[in-house]
Amino acid sequence: MALSLWDDRTHRELVTLRCMRKTLHTMPVALAGAAHSATLHYRQRDALRQLTNAGVSDRLVTALIARIKSLLAERSHLTHRQIEERLAQAGTPVPAARLALKLAWECGELTYRNRSGGWNREHRTFALTATSHPDLHLSLDRDTATTRLIEAYFDRYGPASLRDATWWSGLSRTAVVTALDQAGRPLTAVSTPWADSTLYLPRARFEEFTRQRNEQSPAQVHFLAHEDVALKAYAETRKRYLGALDEDSAFNQIGEALPAIVINGRVTGSWSWDVPTRAVRCRLHRTPAEGADRTAVRAAARQLTVALRAGYAEIRANRPAPHGLAELLPSPSP
Fold first, then answer.
1. InterPro entries from the entry (predicted)?
2. How would you classify residue 314: left for phi > 0, otherwise alpha for psi between -120 and 50, otherwise beta?
3. Domains, in order of start, for the chain
4. Closest CA to 149 of 165, 163, 164, 161
5. What is the Cα–Cα distance from 279 to 233, expressed in whole angstroms?
6. What are 81-138's pLDDT values in tens digits?
7. Engineered SS bond to 313: which of 23, 121, 136, 219, CB 3.0-4.6 Å?
């Protein structure tokens, strides 16, 4: 399962692009078109401003993008350094080449792919979107794209507040409200302990929740990745999964989501990858809420270790056998 991330079929079905808040997202091709078109205006604006500030003329930008596309038509995948070196041979300064490449990527003419073959390495390459993802439609008008994107957000992450949605998308409150009005999908407004604001979710999702809320299920333990969307989807209502914990329990100083251990929807610890032993290390937080199921955490850590080892690049066959996980799961810190 872990190795399927590098299958060609997976890369055809998923695409990594800069979109919401100008950050990288990997998503299904069908949704990626809406995410791109809804957020293109502010990403393209900033890329063009950088070109203007660097004194690169519109005529040169057009010529450089045409040359980049020609190079990628010949070689399929190239790194940014390879592209810059080829353009430099014709006298193009590296800063101009880099900014033109960024604009072409922002505009959707190019796509990104990590061709390293392992999750712990990055070999960033670029390709023509028309070649690598022929089913990716980037011609949606902005209003239609915004409606689809915001509808998908509340369907996947609701209940959420308008502020949550604006933070996640990088769009204005007016754009979010307009999109909800145009979606035509009935919404339910709810109040929760997580925030003073009214939260929204599709009525069908609310009805699904009310049917299942009394069903008993075993403890759900999840190990979330760095910058996991389940944590990054919210800003105003992060108490839903933080509870009494401070934000630095799940986010670093620049706002990136840390690898987190979540039990029944609450952050209860963090995890990291130990390179020498090639195993998952866990650290549990002390909270006044429900106690962590350490047995379930250990089992999940073992399962994740196996998956990550399978997708780990450059593992040497003569490396000593990794230690067990018992000593990698210390007692909760004070």
1. AlkZ-like
2. left
3. 3-132 (1.10.10), 141-215 (1.10.10.10), 217-312 (no CATH)
4. 165
5. 28
6. 999 999 999 999 999 999 999 999 999 999 998 888 888 888 899 999 999 999 999 9
7. 121
